[in-house]
Amino acid sequence: MFAVENGLQGDPRLQAISDAIRVIPHFPKTGIMFQDITTLLLDPVAFKHVIDIFVDRYKHMNISLVAGVEARGFIFGPPIALAIGAKFVPLRKPGKLPGRVISEEYELEYGNDRLEMSMEAVKTHERALVIDDLVATGGTLSASINLLERAGAEVVECACVVGLPKFKGECRLKGKPLYVLVEPSQLD
Ligand SMILES: O=P(O)(O)OC[C@H]1O[C@H](OP(=O)(O)OP(=O)(O)O)[C@H](O)[C@@H]1O
Ligand SMILES: Nc1ncnc2[nH]cnc12
């Protein structure tokens, strides 16, 4: 589900967000149109639009846990977590977290990877939101949902700044709703 399909049609903030994301062709591999959100971070107005839209959506959903995916989910997740009064849980690449972790392997648009989460971070039945910058195949978010569900959390929704158009409409990842702000520019 995209924001334009869900009450934000014609909202100029979405265009401002889209305009602030730079597209780098053939990075990190030939054929990938890399959506570079670092330019969005240089634009405090557009960056704030992202956080405001997510906070408005999630502030009354009784969410106690925001999980952010390394690396770029660490940028958008914490301000949202603080604004809605939830804790922030980092989902990290392998070998970075101390203590007891659970891990999930997944496939990427360009390779394989693994995500880990601290066992102590989650309480059973906690209502969780997963945040990342971008959804391409959905593999990363699906692994994130698996981690949280294995720890006993209830994943309420996954949210991304950028998503491929195939995620329009009532699409779900592992049965969970997905909410996306903008489509990639210059798709091909
Ligand atoms: O929907 P998917 O096909 O799973 O792809 C999306 C993921 O890919 C990118 O991260 P990447 O794995 O490149 O890691 P990085 O942020 O550490 O560079 C992006 O930030 C998402 O986390
Ligand atoms: N096209 C893309 N741009 C930025 N990050 C990505 N992660 C996977 N595909 C990506």
UniProtKB/TrEMBL annotation:
Pfam families (UniProt xref): Pribosyltran
Catalyzes what?
Answer: AMP + diphosphate = 5-phospho-alpha-D-ribose 1-diphosphate + adenine
Per the record, the pathway is: Purine metabolism; AMP biosynthesis via salvage pathway; AMP from adenine: step 1/1
What are the Phosphoribosyltransferase domain coordinates in residue numbering? 44-169
Q: Under which main EC class is this enzyme filed?
A: transferase
Where does this protein reside within or beyond the cell? Cytoplasm
Which SUPFAM superfamilies does this entry report, sorted A to Z? PRTase-like
Q: Which GO terms describe its molecular function?
A: adenine phosphoribosyltransferase activity
Keyword Acetylation: yes or no? Answer: no
Give any Gene Ontology cellular component: cytosol
UniProt keyword Glycosyltransferase present:
yes
Keyword annotations from UniProtKB, A to Z: Cytoplasm, Glycosyltransferase, Purine salvage, Transferase
Q: Name one GO biological process term.
A: purine ribonucleoside salvage
Q: What is its EC number?
A: 2.4.2.7
Instruction: State the family it belongs to.
Output: Belongs to the purine/pyrimidine phosphoribosyltransferase family.
For this protein, the record's PANTHER family field holds: ADENINE PHOSPHORIBOSYLTRANSFERASE
Q: Sorted alphabetically, which NCBIfam families does this protein's record hold? A: apt, PRK02304.1-3, PRK02304.1-5
Q: How does it assemble?
A: Homodimer.
What protein name is recorded for this chain? adenine phosphoribosyltransferase
Whichever gene encodes this chain, its name is LOC108847053
